[in-house]
Amino acid sequence: MEIILKPDLFSFDTCKEFVDAFNPGEKDLFFTNEYIYEPYFGKMGLKVKTIFQEKYGAGEPTDVMVEAILEDASKLQYERIFAIGGGTIIDIAKVMSVTDGTKVDPLYDNMAGLKKRFELIIVPTTCGTGSEVTNISILNRTRLNTKMGLVSSEMYANTAVLVPELLNTLPFGVFATSSIDALVHAVESALSPKATPYTKLFSYNAIKMIIQGYQRMVKEGLDARQSMLKDFLIASNFAGIAFGTAGCAAVHAMSYPLGGAYHVPHGESNYAMFTGVLKNYMEIKTDGEIAVMNDYLADLLGCEAAQVYDKLEELLNAILQKKALHEYGVKEEELDAFTESVMTTQTRLMNNNFVPLDAKRVRKIYQELY
Ligand SMILES: [Fe+2]
After folding, report:
1. Taking the model in full, what pTM does it have?
2. CA of 186 to the centre of ligand 1 (A)
3. Pairing of strands 28-32, 136-141
4. pLDDT tens profile 278-320
5. Do 94 and 137 contact (CB within 8 A), yes or no?
6. CB proximity list for 202: less than 8 A, separation 6 or greater
7. What residues contact residue 87 under an 8 Å CB cut-off, 6+ apart?
8. How far is the CA of 178 from the centre of ligand 1 (A)?
9. What distance in angstroms lies between residue 182's CA and the mean position of ligand 1's atoms?
10. Cα of 42 to ligand 1 centre, how many Å?
């Protein structure tokens, strides 16, 4: 597979232009947050049905939250789902689009049998997940105590729409964690054995846009991001297209036990693992794509290839301070269980590692990051 280019992709500068083009009405469900709906769509007099996700709990999606939403959605009549929000909204909407039931576990048990039941239009309001162009939904399976991906080609949106105006009110913390997530998508997909010349075109361009954006913020102040929101949204989308085909890998796999157990935002738990994983790749293999990546980063960061991970961390720390695992409350004796969880539940991701990482190596990386 060289590259999957799904779904149809549109962009509009404003919500007004988006609404004029898609004409949402009474046969449509807006699945979003009230704090997004009210300021951006509240005065348009839309006849749409709404479900506001925050009424079902804070934070990233759990099986429990999704089941409560599915229960309420099953009482409404609609044909199209407009998912307007961050990763939580998008991931839940993908699940909603392939079921008219109310339970999550049976979907994981029958991934191959999933069928799209509702047309899905995704509009991201953060610049990180790239989830608008992928076919995966990550839920915290509280009954298994980790995050797992539900994957099906039926979960691609019919349409993805980029509307940079929606990012105007994005709090800095969400900007930081989501854009770092996008950077991790770009790097992991570039190093994946499934990367192709096509996916790398998107990966490396995303890396460049994000790093240059951060460099400008360091120089001009963090508010400089407001004039670059469209660029960050596009970079996130590029990274989504890249990892949609080439996949993410160990950084994501190793971040899920931390995110699942300690409710660390996805991009932040990725950052906690990011350079630790890259340094360990380099201990095993220093040539091939990682050498290409390091040269590319060295150029962008203005340093020697040997210093890229430290320089990268220095730049990223200006956006989001990296923390050691113990600072999240992780106990050293939990690292064995984290390792076990990665090796047994995250093989989908671990198969995309630049070089294979065994349990001993994963445990070593956790120790170094502890
Ligand atoms: Fe991610």
Report:
1. 0.95
2. 10
3. unpaired
4. 999 999 999 999 999 999 999 999 999 999 999 999 999 999 9
5. yes
6. 186, 189, 238, 239, 241, 242
7. 60, 126, 128, 129, 131, 138, 178, 266
8. 8
9. 7
10. 30
